[in-house]
Amino acid sequence: MAAIKTPCLGICSTSSLGDLVCRGCKRYSFEVINWNGYDDAAKSAVLKRIERLDKQILENKLRIFSVPNLKAGLERFQIPYDESLSPYCWLHNLLKKAHSRIHGLEEYGVYAIASYADMSLQELCETIEKELLLLSEAHHDRYFALDDVDQR
Questions:
Q1: What pLDDT is recorded for position 124?
Q2: Residue 20, CB half-sphere, CA atoms under 13 Å: how many?
Q3: How far apart are CA 22 and CA 137, in angstroms?
Q4: Reduced to 3 states, what is the DSSP secondary structure of residue 64?
Q5: What is this structure's pTM?
Q6: How far apart are the first and last CA of the chain?
Q7: What share of the chain is helix, strand, coil (3-state, %, to 5)?
Q8: Which are the contacts of 97, defined by CB distance < 8 A and separation ≥ 6?
Q9: What are the C-alpha distances in Å from 86 to residues 89, 128, 142, 144?
């Protein structure tokens, strides 16, 4: 079995800005710091949480109609993706790293659903990021904030 790779996209805001939730990969700051010490089960749990949150936000705005086109776009821009995760996670990586270089989502096997079709890609990406950050912070507050208080 291959080692579980970090979901890092090279846009870390936990170490550079002190954010609670990384603006790139959506791991919590303590997960970024402790990643190399985690066993495979812990790493997998982190990735599964990120996958659920990514899917929850992206599936409500976008549809993937061609996984091969999405993969080709990721490879063209040399953006890493984890094949064991949902293609919506791959799409999130593409949008994070290359949205400014994308002229049309259809080329990447993706389209925006009707309620988001009139938004510019920049606006759509900002909306997705804002919602993912809020959802990630809410998840942290619900499941980890008590641990933070207990450790003081």
A1: 97
A2: 12
A3: 10
A4: strand
A5: 0.87
A6: 38
A7: 60, 5, 35
A8: 9, 11, 77, 79
A9: 5, 16, 24, 25
Q: What letter represents residue 131's amino acid?
A: E
Q: Hunting for tokens 């995760």 — which residue is that? A: 85
Enter the tokens of residue 39: 């066993």
Buried b (16+ CB within 10 A) or exposed e, 58-80: beebbebeeeebbbebbeeeebe
Place of tokens 């010490």: 37
For position 147, what pLDDT does the model report? 55
Q: In tens digits, what is the pLDDT along the chain, a chain of 152 residues?
A: 567 888 888 777 776 667 788 888 888 989 988 999 999 999 999 999 999 999 999 999 999 999 999 999 999 999 989 999 999 999 999 999 999 999 999 999 999 999 999 999 999 999 999 999 999 999 999 888 765 544 44
- Cβ proximity of 80 and 93 under 8 Å: yes
Distance CA 39, CA 51 (A): 18
**Helices (H) and strands (E) in the chain — how many of each?**
6, 2
- How far apart are the C-alpha atoms of 100 and 115, rounded to whole Å? 22
